[in-house]
Amino acid sequence: MGVFDDLVGQERAAQTLRRAAAAAAEVLAGGSGAGMTHAWLFTGPPGSGREEAARAFAAALFCADGGCGHCDMCHQVMVGSHPDLETVRPQGLSYGIKDTRQLILRAAGAPTLGRWRVVLFEDADRATEGASNALLKAIEEPPPRTVWLLCAPSPDDMMITIRSRCRVVTLVTPPVAAVAHVLATRENVPPDMAAFAARAAQGHLDRARRLALDADARGRRESVLSIPASLTGVGECVAAAERLVKTAEEEAAAVTSVLDEAETAELRKVYGEGSTGKGLNKGLVRGGAGALKELEERQKSRATRTKRDVIDAALLDLVTFYRDVLAVQFGAQGVELATEDRRADLEKVARSSTPEDNLRRIDAIMLCRRRLAANVSPQMAVEAMTLSLRSPRLLP
Ligand SMILES: [Zn+2]
């Protein structure tokens, strides 16, 4: 089973990448290698597996067998230890020019193992303008064996000058049935749970996996989806907003604290902290304090980003709920709704509102997402939203 077989519902993209990997092998053999190019942009909605597709392609470039999935090269790529693969995963809200310049220098080196040097840039849309310009120059004049794999939600998220120099690989939201099948066959999830998780996650594979395997994740979704039917008074709106933000904070803290502790411990070890300090090089101690401070800032930025991402995911669950209410109001027959498990709430909200109300509610949620992206305090933005959800007609 090859590396591309792991991509769920992406037959077209896999076809393109298989051909390109074959062409890349031709280049190495001295041929023309039409079909291979040195800059790629992987786009697709969250959960479509952009990074997974890029990683599979990297494996196919390194593997003598076009991505067999079981040789040393393929394995090293999958666990992230291949010396010629550099993975960039921006931790904060943006990726700056200083980091980008260092990355470009590293990318310019000759491949250690003689095939390619590959940079896999996750969330490349987080590159700042300065960083993007530096990146553009690197892509315009690439060293002969360097391949850039950029990942972003859509081509529009990248500067047009970068986009036009990349071959775009478009990934699609995998069908619900394909996601359910993967959960059942690869994760041993019982069929009923697999079907529920795939439907609730609307083709977002990671999220479906979390919902299927993690009872806490299911509990958080329950808590978010119980909001619409609970907004009976102003007090309830305020309480619901508080609950949503607090749940997001807890989830984000659970994700980031594990990472933070490991990184901090690692850094302290590097700078020799924990020893008596006697005879410790003073410059090293000062360097350690600086590095620690830098790490703390990075961690803070990551925590903010994680919290924002978690709230955003909750808001998208709410959008799905109101879309399903609209489907109920328009009498959609035979469609399995993403929030089918909240059927009673869907019908209750559908009975007590007009389709226009629910369109306005969706607008209110989108407004809240924009406010959060613009750094409005989560508590304020979410509270304004729950109040609008209760009285959609008061919206301008
Ligand atoms: Zn292989």
From TrEMBL:
The keyword Cytoplasm does not apply. It comes from the Bacteria. It holds the Pfam family DNA_pol3_delta2. One of its GO terms (biological process) is DNA-templated DNA replication. The gene is holB. Keywords: Coiled coil. InterPro entries: DNA_Rep/Repair_Clamp_Loader, P-loop_NTPase. This is DNA polymerase III subunit delta. The keyword Coiled coil applies. Gene3D superfamilies: P-loop containing nucleotide triphosphate hydrolases. Residues 238-265 form a coiled coil. SUPFAM superfamilies: P-loop containing nucleoside triphosphate hydrolases. NCBIfam families: PRK07940.1.
